[in-house]
Amino acid sequence: MKAELDKNYWDNRYKEGQTGWDLGEVSPALKAYIDQIEKKDLKILIPGGGNAYELAYLHQKGFHNSYLIDLSPTALSNFKKNNPSIPDKFLIEGNYFDHIGEYDLIIEQTFFCAIDRTLREKYAEKTNDLLVSGGKLIGLLWSEDFGDDSPPFGGTKKEYLSYFTPYFKIQVLENSRNSIKPRAGRELFMILQKLT
Ligand SMILES: C[S@@+](CC[C@H](N)C(=O)[O-])C[C@H]1O[C@@H](n2cnc3c(N)ncnc32)[C@H](O)[C@@H]1O
């Protein structure tokens, strides 16, 4: 039976240490993108950030207007323990789809593949809503499928384009050149810019 991918499901995954998605470090593709951003005052959101090494990296690099949102209180408390110098106001406990805000940049990593497939169109619409005019969604998406039983749910470039094209100018959606070894050749890197 398919599990309901709610707060309990995700919080238990952290409590039980069932976090096979966790890289334990900043994703190299995201690090490379972050390293070339010049505007340090961008307002940045990492949805479904989990242990959010990228959030810690952003703050370390002087991006002091960067936030994560996650359903799991355990993930957030782990993040606080590991990053005591980052103020709580940057850690939002909640559901991405209910979140209200305005961001210049949203960074995706294994959140899109963690939500139920039926929410994919809504993800594109919600992400568009949360971005300022000209704002960007960047990050990584799986380029292969893993079936429908439990996350991660993968997909194809063609499928992703069907969700994002109505809302975004597709600047980049291509094989990631700097994935970690086990994900090499299995991920797309995207840079999508809000259309309106
Ligand atoms: C597969 S994990 C990825 C975590 C992190 N991005 C990483 O790469 O290590 C998916 C994360 O999304 C969170 N999540 C799932 N559904 C969510 C929702 N609707 N709103 C906010 N967070 C959600 C989970 O709690 C979990 O931390």
What level of helicity do the residues show?
25-40%
Order of helices and strands: HHEHEHEEHEHEE
| Straight-line distance between termini | 40 Å
Low-pLDDT segments, ≥5 res: none
Q: What radius of gyration results from the CA coordinates?
A: 16 Å
Count of helix runs: 6
The averaged pLDDT comes out at 96
CATH top level is Alpha Beta
Class from helix and strand fractions: alpha/beta
- What kind of sheet is the major sheet? 7 strands, mixed
Q: Count the beta strands.
A: 7
At the fold tier of CATH, the topology name is Rossmann fold
Organism: Acidiluteibacter ferrifornacis
InterPro entries: SAM-dependent_MTases_sf, TPMT
Protein name: SAM-dependent methyltransferase
Keywords: Methyltransferase, Phosphoprotein, S-adenosyl-L-methionine, Transferase
Provide a descriptive summary of the structure in words.
- This protein has six helices and seven strands.
- The termini are far apart.
- The chain has one domain (7-17, 26-194): Rossmann fold, CATH 3.40.50.150.
- It has helices spanning 7-15, 28-35, 53-60, 73-82, 120-130, 157-164, and strands at residues 44-47, 66-70, 91-93, 103-108, 131-142, 168-175, 187-194.
- The mean pLDDT is 96.
- The chain has a seven-stranded mixed beta sheet with strand order 3-2-1-4-5-7-6, with helices on both faces.
- With 196 residues, the protein is an alpha/beta fold.
- The structure holds S-adenosylmethionine.
- Residues 10, 21-22, 47-51, 69-72, 75, 95-97, 109-111, 114-115 line the site of S-adenosylmethionine.
- S-adenosylmethionine binds at residues 10, 21-22, 47-51, 69-72, 75, 95-97, 109-111, 114-115.
